[in-house]
Amino acid sequence: MGKSVTLTIRLNVEVKEGLDALAEATDRSLGYLASQAISEYADVQRSQVQAIIDGIAAADRGDLVDIEEVRAAWEAKRARRTEQPRSR
To answer: How far apart are CA 75 and CA 69, in angstroms?
Structure first.
């Protein structure tokens, strides 16, 4: 693990109590849980923002799909699903 820094944040009471319970149940520290949660959140957000940036760039290049092609693909998928017998 690399260098670490201290970050002070405010949490509502319910979130803190939930973290306390999770820390107790998992035998982890609050700091560990908070660090993991923030890291995972930031990874997801970065990925989503990059997907948006990539999508805008693709649209700017003209890399688009006709809406009728999308509708046709979804209709075909729906038709295949409704034709398949349901398993129980």
So the answer is: 10
Contact 33, 23 (CB under 8 A): yes
pLDDT tens digits, residue range 34-71? Answer: 999 999 999 999 999 999 999 999 999 999 999 999 99
pTM: 0.68
Any idea what the Cα angle at residue 85 is, between residues 82 and 88, rounded to 5°?
Answer: 120
* Rounded Cα gap, residues 29 and 34, in angstroms: 9
Which residue matches tokens 């670490």? 4
Domain boundaries along the sequence of the chain: 13-83
Closest CA to 9 of 22, 1, 19, 23: 19
Handedness of CA 30, 32, 37, 42 (dihedral sign): positive
* Residue type at position 2: G
Q: Residue 74: phi, psi to the nearest 5?
A: -70, -40
* Residue 26, token pair as written in the block: 């998992």
